[in-house]
Amino acid sequence: MMETAEPSDISNTLESIGELAEQAAAEGFYSLQDVGLLIVEALSALPTASVTTGLLTALARLSECFSEYSFGAESAIPDIIGIISYPNLQIALTEDELTALAEQLTTDLTAGAWPIDEEEATPEAAEDGATSSSLSKETMELVELLEMEAALIQRLLCAIDLDTAGATDPLASLADNLERYVNASKMAGFEGLALICEHIGRNVQLCRDQPERFAAPQLQALQDWIANVARYLSGFNETGAGMPMLAQLGHTDWPQPITMEAAAILMTLLQTTGSDADNSAPAIGRIELATPEDVTLALPDDVNHELLAILLQELPVQTQAFSTALQALKTGGSLADLDTAQRIAHNVKGAANTVGIKGVAQLTHYLEDVLVACAEQHTLPGAGLLYTLIEAADCLEAMSESLLGQSPPPDNATAVLQAILDWAKRIELNGLDEIAASAPPPQPLATPAEAAATEVVPTDAADKQQAPMVRIEAEQLEQLFRQAGENIIINSQANERLRRMKNQLQAMQEQFELLRRLGDELEQLTDLKDLSGRSLSPDKPLHDALEMDQYNELHTASRRMVEAAFDAREMNLDASKDLAEMYRLLEDQQRLVTETQETIMAARLVPISSIFHRLQRSLRQTCRLTGKDCELELTGEQMMVDGNTPNAMIDPIMHLLRNAVDHGIEDPQERLSLGKSAQGNITIDFARDGNYIVVRVRDDGRGLDYAAIRQVAEQRGVLSPGQTASEAELQQVILRPNFSTRTEATQTSGRGVGMDVVNYQIQAQGGSLALHSVAGVGLTVEMKIPLPLSRSHALLTHIGPYRIALANKGIRQILFAAPDDFSDSPDGKQLLIEDSLYSVITLNKLLHLPDQRPVGQFHQTALLVQGLQQSWAVMVDSIADGLDIVIKNFGFYIKKIPGFIGATILGDGAVAPVVDLPELLLMADSNADYAAFLNFADPLPLTANLPKVLVVDDSLSQRRALEQLLQDAGYHVQTARDGIEAAEQLDTFTPDIVLTDLEMPRMNGIEFASHIRIRDKFSRLPVIMITSRTTQMHRKMAEAAGISLYLVKPVREDDLLAQMQHLIDSHATA
Length: 1070
What we know:
Helix content is about 55%, strand content about 15%.
């Protein structure tokens, strides 16, 4: 396993290559400078853990190559191309781009002061040229690639020093190179050479396992072998080619020499390969055999969820339109349908590549190749090809459904991709006309059962079905959340009514009990009266009174009243039981409604890490613009927050990042002289503090330059010359509007968007911003941002006739305060609790309401509240209740009122304002009147002074990707779907530059550029066209339409930003 390089070694390598690039530019070798910048960019983008010593060893050769090239050695060009093609660098250049770069390097060299000596044109060279001319261009390109790789291995072997410790360490890098060389040889059709490289790899492994067997003879054997490989490649199609290489492999210096039998077999392979290489060479960059890994729909771990959502929204529509276009071709369509299908395949490919869904990207990539071949020859696909294209369209739709969770991945995806690859190869070798003449009748592709029997078992990632996904707009999610909140409110009101009914039934029960007692008393009195009446008669009656009907109506009425009271009491008890059951049912409903709201809320939660890639990209871009090197670290990024929270934080954080790099982090040389590492470090820490998110952006730079701050403050009249100002006061100065210590505007600073806007954005969200700077150690900017509240536990209190709901945000404790707990101080009253003093303030004073308590009477209920800057004791008249509430905003027509989150509907239907105590206390800390904030003038938004860009592209995902890139780079971006929409936007939006695609519906990029040029206001407006069209015809059309710069996809982000800045600056000074 390769050893990870030290950060200091990486930094030194970056610095060295950067200096080489600058030197190349100074000498006029601009293509050589591009090579250096490409490598610096790629190496900077790699995680430190993935940079190996082998990679740095390969890059160490770059200095020698640059030097040889500068002195006119054209032989250095293959070595340079070999280095830039090093796989571990991960530079995304196609073979065509590498070939073009090599040609440009040759052109720059021949255009310099190094004439080719006529004596170099020897007969041998002419003979080689004749041999080369007999081979196809594709074969020669493949051979040149193998020669470049061989040269790289040769340089690696030459760099091994046996006299130093760890002489076998470079063998790990050599093993990696050999493995890559085996694959390259097989791809080029050199099977014999691939087997020889595998044999060499086994010898190298033996030397690694037994270092004592690796000495000077073995090193020399390796060097001789790679020299023989180079000679073989220079004349591989000649008789006897490869014999010296095979003879040398049988030498006893090898730990494992080759046998005679193996040599004979290899010689046959070397000769056959040489004669068949021209016919067997595949197209460069195209895979030959489709595998399940090529059609996997697994999402990358670092997928951008916003772009994924856009793709899932676009994909069903695009795939359906693609199928429609191909079906139109089946029923006798036109070249317009072919063009539509090609454009859709191109857009889907770009979107899938942007998100990282390999299966969709691969299939649409090769579909586009086939469709472009048809379009270039103005030929509609024949029946056989069209059948395969329609099968591919069906497969693409199945992939779309699988990504949406509506079905499993298509079983025939590998077979479909293989069929498209076969067609692409046949078209390349034979052309469309010959294929159409000899095309067999269309055959169905492998059925799912056949595919399962023939395909390789897919990987776990590819085999897993995508979890079901449903597209839902944020507005609909917000509506569901609101409805769940309304349910909670109605449920709480029902609970309140039920509580009242329960109290009324209880009162009725008491009345029934009283009625029962009164009935008993009445019955006793009636019986006594009857007894007294009978006692007056001297004679005993012969019959009972009941028998003689001597009970009167009073007896009957009293008895009936007692029975009725008893029955009513029983009915009341039954109603109470039913009411209790109803109460339990309402509690269950309340729980379910609460769970529903929490589930909807969870659907809106995203990890803060979702913005990491944007922060990292913004940092890299700023570093490249300033020539500095910084590393970004995030802690606490797995915290889940509301989906709107990261978006609310991203702009302030990115501004702080740019500020840290531009103002805080020193140049690498300065950092080294100060004993710091050349690479700066910026850490963003996310933490939860109650209902707040605390974001700390910390750098290890120079800290605040108080002298520069004072100087600018005196120049602007903020401070008088010589006026005493503490560091805390100077920190507040940089929060003033439009304050900057930079005198020149650059792409990273000096545009008038200062820390004041960041501070306002944080305060507008109810948060706070604090600065902590240590000279020479760095600056920490701490932002405290409240989390949005929709539900909260609240305390219901009364202030005179008003009922106020106090959100539990920041409330640490509720306690009873005795008069002896209070004391007076110069700063006002204080409350002593558990040896801690708290500043005392009444809720009446915070809300600017009169205190109606008698003079000298203390508030006895105290709330200990953690404010943003200190802790307070807030005194209230009383706490009436504690309840869970749903918070509703004040609506569109009521502006944000500082200290008030919103309002809530209580159980009795009354509306009570919900107070945010920490925000009210923040104004108490600053001695501010909250009413003054209601007329506070809004400062300019973050985009006010930024350069304006209009992005025009019919692909939603491409628009969003460009929009995000440019916003992160510090531009104000507006987008349009096509030329018509863009032309309408120009009536109200004046951009500084326009980025447009070429192929768009309604009005394409050429027509839109012509429209711009006929308008006097925009006649000199810079316009960049970004397209996949590479032909000279399209370039000339763009130039004639007034396009300022024509870029071919894929475009490197840094190149695009640099070109944009150059055009904007040129336009501003023109």
